[in-house]
Write a sequence for this structure.
């Protein structure tokens, strides 16, 4: 009976060692995959920051152009009104 118990325990220890080895391997694979994911996230964050900067610059240009066009439109309107009043 003691021999059977020892034999059973030896088998259990062997099984646990094999499982432990498998878990360490899986942990290594998961860690490697996590590093790849983290790298991709970092690249995407950098690309997002670049796109935000580009968007902000384009918005500034758009606002500048809009202000210029509004000013030109006002000047044209005033010139037109002046010409119309002169022709009366």
């Amino acid at each position: 009976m003691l021999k059977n118990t020892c034999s059973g325990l030896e088998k259990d220890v062997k099984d646990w060692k094999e499982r432990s080895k498998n878990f360490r391997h899986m942990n290594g694979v998961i860690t490697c995959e996590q590093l790849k994911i983290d790298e991709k996230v970092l690249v995407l964050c950098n690309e997002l920051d670049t796109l935000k900067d580009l968007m902000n610059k384009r918005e500034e240009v758009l606002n500048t152009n809009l202000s210029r066009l509004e000013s030109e439109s006002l000047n044209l309107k005033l010139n037109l009104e002046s010409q119309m009043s002169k022709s009366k």
The mean pLDDT is 95. Residues 70 and 86 are 24 Å apart (CA to CA). The longest helix spans residues 2-87. The radius of gyration is 37 Å.
